[in-house]
Amino acid sequence: MEKAVLRKLTSLCIICGVAVLVLSGFAAFRDGEREWMPHQAHYKEQLLKKLSPVKNPILYQRVLRTQPEIKQIVVDEWGAVDRCTTCHLGIEDPLFAGAAQPFKTHPYPELLKKHPVEKYGCTICHGGQGLATTYRGAAHKGIEHWPVPMVAKGMMQSRCGVCHKDFLAIGADRLVQGREIFKQMHCAGCHRIEKVGGDVGPELSAFADKDPGNFAYANVEGSHSKQAWVMQHFKDPQKVTPGTPMRPYPMTDEQIECLASYVLSLSQKEMPRQYTPKEQPSAPSPQAHAWTAAAQAAPLTLAGELSASAADQPERSSK
Question: CA-to-CA distance for 10 and 101, rounded, in angstroms?
Fold first, then answer.
């Protein structure tokens, strides 16, 4: 009896040992096949070609000795952990200004001077899932149940408006135009912003802070994100939200992006003081005046119908 039990225990131990070896081997194999590793190897190869071992031997040797590693930026003030630079290694390196992604230098280096990556991270401006180390996981494209996908290129300024409220001062032309379209279409007749406006539609003061999970995506095509919902809602309100009193307005895709960017910039989130920009009473630049003038001309550019469409909307007093 005892021998039979021992044989069974021995067999069980052998099976468990083999299983552990197989799992360990599989884990080691997967660890060596991480999606970001080839990017780092390729970046190292390209960087070594750009450096001279004669003119700068110390830097050359330092790069030569680098090993693959996950790079991350921790911003305690808003609980962000961004690993974007694990792949986007040349984001601050002018040597990679003409490189392809993921190594391409940031297209606006002057912005990085005011928003250094080591202090701000990446996702505060670009959105996405900072902890991820894969293309899909980082939410370059919409992923199910992730509330903050990567911000679409045409709507990048929506993130600027979360912190910066003086759109003219920062040159946010799309936010300026979006705000003017909001005014010209008399959106405040139905929607309230900062205690100003009507009550027919939902309040928009903190629209950027709303949980994307509370939106209905049954009639939204493509990615089920708040960005997609807003864009498609402005194009065809009745399709996205059947029964809504809101009707479609004749706007171009660019104008819809501007309006959506403005609405998505409306936030009441309290940012740490050191990250909150100070508004200075400086005169707007001539370029800013030009943006404002162009935005105020919106009624003439919305397929020639915006003025007529907006004219019969109820205009509420701001008093």
Answer: 54
Q: What is the token pair recorded at 243?
A: 């029964």
Reading the block at residue 130, the tokens are 């900072």
pLDDT digits (tens, 9 = 90+) for 222-233: 888 899 999 999
* Percent of the chain residues topping a pLDDT of 70: 81
Structure confidence at residue 59 (pLDDT) = 93
Number of H helices, E strands in the chain: 14, 2
Secondary structure (DSSP) of 137-203: TTTSS--TT-SSPBPPGGGTHHHHHHH---HHHHT-HHHHHHHHHHHHTTGGGT--BTTBS-SSS--
Q: How far is CA 42 from CA 37, 38, 75, 208, in A?
A: 9, 6, 28, 38
Q: CATH top-level class for 155-311?
A: mainly alpha
Secondary structure class of 29 (helix, strand, coil): helix
Residue intervals of the chain classified under CATH 1.10.760.10 are 155-311
The mean predicted confidence, pLDDT, of the chain is 83
Centre a 10 Å sphere on the Cβ of residue 168 and count the other Cβ atoms it contains. Answer: 18
Q: How many residues does the chain have?
A: 319
pTM of the model: 0.76
Distance CA(122)–CA(10), nearest Å, equals 54
Q: How far apart are CA 307 and CA 301, in angstroms?
A: 10
82 DSSP β-pair partners: 73
Where do the DSSP E strands lie in 71-222? 73-75, 80-82
DSSP class of residue 189 equals: G
Residue 27 is which amino acid? Answer: A
Cis, peptide link before residue 147, omega less than 30° from 0: no
Phi, psi of 279 (to 5 degrees): -80, 125
3-state secondary structure of 191: coil
Question: How far is residue 39's CA from residue 20's CA, in Å, rounded to a whole number?
Answer: 31
- Cα separation of the two ends of the chain: 93
The 10s digit of each residue's pLDDT in 44-81 is 999 999 999 999 999 999 999 999 999 999 998 888 89
